[in-house]
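Support reply, case 0932

Customer input (verbatim):
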Amino acid sequence: MPQRDKLYSSLVVGQIITIIHYAIPLLLGLAMAGMDQASSFNVAMFKSRFKRRQFFAARYWYGLTCLLGTTTLGIGILLLGIFAGVPTEYVGISGLNILGLLMMNLAIDSFLFTVGIGVGSIFSTLFGMFVFGLFGGWLGASAIQRFMVYNAMNHRSYWSLLPRGDQLFLLLFILALTISVAGYWLTRWLFDRISLENEGDILLLPKLRWVIFVYTLIVVPYNFGDWLLQNELLSYSVSIIGVLALGLWWLHRERVQERLMVR
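Our regenerated output:
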């Protein structure tokens, strides 16, 4: 129960706000890339005098600038409300804390926005972008979390070597920023090579299906664990067979479409 003169924050409310905050950059990236693809704006731009890299860079930096500006404004309003409405002795936030909060949020937003733009740029349909992109991203994040929890419980001696406090924050900040920069260059490189002739397929770059296939083959069985009769061997076998069947269907579907196009 909340107590008088004490700050109170529901754990569930905090988790929901965090999920929404992290979902917005991802959805923004998906929406920007998906709308350009669905509205045939990409086709018009590819036929113009503009280079693909110029078009991609303009769209990316426009969206990222708006996103980071909004994030900075939102954090500023939040801090203003805290300092204006909460007694000073209960705040406990220093200038360094504020700077760290801002830097970490900007780095995470940049990373998620880059992922959204990347997924939206290589999938040809909104269905593929949101189902494969969001569901696949959720599976990947869940697999990483499960892996970290497992190792934390069974290999605590290794986790004790990891940095703590400010060092951990700096490590996570550098990691998010580095992945964002690498993701930008990789996505721009892929965008420069997509072919709109594959609009009827799931991917605009069909060769990437093997990357997605291997990724799915790793994260799906590992994520679901012993979901079938609490038997890991049986569960992993069924999950792998399901992924293989989906991969064969995907390959057969694209080959049928290729034959129809030849005719």
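We compared this against your earlier run and they match. Two observations from our side: Residues 1-8 have pLDDT under 50 and may be disordered. DSSP finds ten helices and no strands in the chain. Please reopen the case if you see a mismatch on your end.
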